[in-house]
Amino acid sequence: MKRLLAIALACAPMAASAAEQAPDLSLTRLDCGRAIEPWPLGAFDDTGGAADLKKAIVGSCYLVRHDERLMIWDTGIDPATSGDPDGGFLLDRTLVEQLAQLGVTPADIEFVGVSHYHYDHTGQAKAFPQATLLIGEEDWQAITHDPPLGNANPADFPAWIAGKAKVETFAGDKDVFGDRSVVILDMPGHTPGHHALLVRLPRTGPVLLTGDLAHFTENYEREGVPTFNTDRADTLASFDRFKKMAQNLGAKVVIQHEPADVARLPTFPEAAR
Ligand SMILES: [Zn+2]
Questions:
Q1: Which CATH architecture has domain 25-264?
Q2: Exposed site from 19, 50, 128, 245, fewest CB < 10 Å?
Q3: What is the mean pLDDT of residues 29-51?
Q4: Ligand 1 centre from 181 Cα, in Å?
């Protein structure tokens, strides 16, 4: 009995302090572009499942607020390429402009997380030259390889390549704030170091951001693999992990390029909490 009481007393303060320490966590969707015109999506499914599909896809970035610490997830296109038919996107407002509306300056951003090395996810990283860059190890290797691999664009990462800012790479998952509230998830296949993001919001519940594991709803449902992915088998294994996690956590899934999923989070400047 005495021993049980001792255990209870030992545990009680821990439980209380754990509750007190739960971070004030929020997730804000930021606009990172829209298709100039609907994209033909045939190449996004190597089994022909998207052959007749066209969609005005969007670009999405996110601000994660963990108490006073801030992280950006994905950085959209370079504003200088807005309207360029090769890129296929229009950008109405930069990340910096949107953050200013929230009272956030680039110097306030501690982490810039990038799901993978494609141009439509790395284009505004250089607006945060003091932030720690979080990126999959194999994608960072592709960016810094001479010549760069897989259309990776080193010009988007001048501060980190010059060693003026910190880069943290990882092969598996990355627990960003050390309390499991925000976890970058290993989801290779689109690129070798591709990652998705889990944000465990206190009221909304867990949210899973796909990165480019899937680009639109139909491909998420059918597990369509783009012809230009770096590894087909890895992509399917990542679909398996992502969907099982979504089910086990009861998570809200947001496909970052899917126009219909913009409404799954509050409209900027409101944040999900
Ligand atoms: Zn993309």
A1: 4-Layer Sandwich (3.60)
A2: 19
A3: 98
A4: 24
Residues 6+ apart with CB under 8 A from 123: 75, 76, 77, 78, 79, 81, 156
Q: Which of 122, 183, 112 is nearest to 150 (CA)?
A: 122
Cα 106 to middle of ligand 1, angstroms: 23
pLDDT cut 90: percent of the chain above it: 92
* Distance between CA atoms of residues 223 and 253, nearest Å: 15
Q: What is the pTM of this model?
A: 0.92
What is the arithmetic mean of pLDDT over 210-217? 98
Q: Whose CA is closest to 239, among 182, 188, 175, 193?
A: 188
d(CA 93, CA 124): 11
Q: How far is the CA of 148 from the centre of ligand 1 (A)?
A: 18
Q: How close is the Cα of 239 to the center of ligand 1, in Å? A: 16
Distance 41 CA to ligand 1 centre (A): 13
pLDDT at 154 over 80: yes
Could you tell me the residue ranges of all domains in the chain?
A: 25-264
Centre of ligand 1 to C-alpha 13, Å, is 46
41 vs 52: CA distance, rounded Å: 8
Structure tokens given for 200: 């465990």
Determine the distance separating the centroid of ligand 1 and the alpha carbon of 202, expressed in angstroms: 28
Predicted local distance difference test score (pLDDT) of residue 86: 92
Residue 241 CA to residue 186 CA, distance in Å, equals 9
> Which of 269, 268, 261 minimizes the C-alpha distance to 209?
261
Q: How far is the CA of 17 from the centre of ligand 1 (A)?
A: 41
Distance CA(136)–CA(124), nearest Å, equals 18
DSSP annotation of 125 reads G
